[in-house]
């Protein structure tokens, strides 16, 4: 079995450069690749196209890359928690492609599975479908959506082994699994990296064949966007 472990986040992100297209897992701030995002800031790559469900918040997640003006285009389905995103979009500084959430997931999955495109009913008859091929299937109209083409996918998992087999925990099992193998190079950061043979095969969510590099992450903040607690009685 190929050993896909790399020593650190710096080695994991070797090859990242300006004007690349990147996929980043997570939903809100749940399951985002915190270490990879920090290293992207250190690298200083510019002109990036980022495919992610959302753009983080102003001072965390992809919001940090927006502050540094490293992102030229966001491909997302929800962006309502980031004031800087709104400012850049309305001023024309940032190119934005808003996609229905299910379509975003399916375009990732199509790339993962090697399909060039998928048909979906979502968005038919709206601006989403403008300029795209449509087709009738059994009396219902569908829109042709092309699979994403990305240079890197950055994934956050709870546990992984040196062969790249991954286990996700709780709601971090969101866009992360669909993005594994959906780019030329998939980089997985994990909270716990264990030797091959340690994981229960029946518990593995993503097999290592979808991962090219894996490393032990560190110093996770795991922020919550809207912390809600029960009022004192």
From TrEMBL:
Keyword Transferase applies: yes
Pfam families: CoA_trans
Alphabetical UniProt keywords: Transferase
NCBIfam families documented for this protein: pcaI_scoA_fam
Protein name: CoA transferase subunit A
PANTHER family xrefs: ACETATE COA-TRANSFERASE SUBUNIT ALPHA, KETOACID-COENZYME A TRANSFERASE
Matches recorded under SMART domains: CoA_trans (SM00882)
Top-rank lineage group of the source organism: Bacteria
GO molecular function ontology, one term from the record: transferase activity
């Amino acid at each position: 079995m190929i050993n896909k472990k790399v020593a650190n986040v710096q080695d994991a992100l070797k090859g990242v450069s300006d004007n690349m297209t990147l996929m980043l897992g997570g939903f809100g701030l749940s399951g985002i690749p915190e270490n990879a995002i920090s290293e992207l800031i250190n690298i200083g790559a510019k002109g990036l196209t980022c495919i992610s469900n959302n753009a983080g918040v102003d001072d965390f997640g992809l919001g940090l890359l927006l502050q540094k003006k490293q992102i030229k285009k966001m491909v997302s389905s929800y962006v309502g928690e980031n004031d800087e995103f709104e400012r850049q979009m309305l001023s024309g500084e940032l190119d934005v492609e808003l996609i229905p959430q299910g379509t975003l997931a399916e375009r990732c999955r199509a790339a993962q599975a090697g399909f060039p495109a998928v048909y979906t009913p979502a968005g038919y008859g709206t601006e989403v479908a403008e300029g795209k091929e449509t087709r009738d299937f059994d009396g219902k109209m569908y829109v042709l959506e092309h699979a994403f083409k990305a240079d890197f996918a950055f994934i956050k998992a709870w546990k992984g082994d040196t062969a790249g087999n991954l286990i996700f925990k709780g709601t971090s099992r969101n866009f992360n699994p669909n993005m594994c193998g959906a780019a030329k190079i998939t980089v997985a950061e994990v909270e716990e990296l264990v030797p091959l043979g340690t994981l229960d095969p029946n518990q593995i969510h993503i097999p290592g064949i979808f991962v090219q590099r894996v490393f032990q992450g560190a110093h996770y903040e795991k922020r919550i966007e809207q912390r809600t607690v029960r009022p004192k009685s």
